Amino acid sequence: MTDPDLAALDPSWDRLVFWLRVHAPVDYAALRSPATAEEIAGLETHLGFPLHPQLRALLERHNGAMRQPERDNFHAGAFLPLGHRLSDTEHIARRHQWLIDVGAELIAGDAPNEETLYGHAHQWVPFAYPTDGGIAFIDHRPGPTYGHVYEMGIGSGSLVATKWASSLSELFGSLVTSLHTGEPFLQFWPTPHELPSDHFCLTWEIGHRRKNGDIKSWPTPRPLDSPLRPATAIELGPLLGALTPVDPQGPRAGESR
């Protein structure tokens, strides 16, 4: 990857983060502190290959998003389409291990062919996840699909990967464009979701509808009264259908905003 390609992450990601900070502060507050150099190095040791530079750069900004930012709140921080939230380095490693142990054979079938996307699942790096099963991943196989972003709804029984973008920077740029124009990203429409706390977070509705309107139509956000405090025991259920155990996690040191 060239330096211009790497630098492309900054403006697209910064624009998305700025939008969240202004219009969905509860989503913005769910972003975690940067991953340390040791955490990133440990993830790369587990993977056995270097992270795509744009994924590394993303982790150096935020080590994922909180998994349950507040009690009775599973939405804040899940601001990517299909309710995906960014994974931290530990979660990326666990889900990659699942791909090696179980997923690769399940996805590729009886006759895996590494020339196809499904034949080299061990080179996928899952970077985000929804609460109902599935993965959003970046293809790390050297070649023309290196850095491409895909989504696969494993928990729903679907084993067909949908390409979201050719890079993380393209994905985030497309999402920001959708937020500003009101037009959909693929079949996903940006939509405010009201939480019990009266805050609004970003969700993406699926389907056909008339134009949503521009950014001015977004509800006026409420300022956060205090930093988000993740629950100490989180029961999200299996993260990959029935194949992954429940993953409780409490707050991390340095999580406060």
Structure at a glance:
The chain is α+β, with helices and mostly antiparallel strands and 257 residues long.
Helices and strands, with pairings:
Elements: H1 3-7, H2 9-23, H3 25-29, H4 37-47, H5 53-61, E1 85-86, H6 89-108, E2 124-129, E3 135-139, E4 149-152, E5 162-165, H7 168-181, E6 188-194, E7 200-206
Antiparallel strand pairs: 1-2, 2-3, 3-4, 4-5, 6-7
Structure description:
The protein is an alpha+beta fold. It has seven helices and seven strands; from the N terminus they run αααααβαββββαββ. The strands form two sheets. The chain has a five-stranded antiparallel sheet. The chain has a two-stranded antiparallel sheet with strand order 6-7. A hairpin with a 5-residue loop joins strand 2 (about 125-130) and strand 3 (about 135-140). Helix 2 runs parallel beside helix 7 (about 170-180) and helix 4 packs parallel to helix 6. The longest helix is centred in the middle third of the chain and has 20 residues, at about 90-110. It is globular and about 50 Å long. Residues about 230-255 have low confidence and may be disordered.
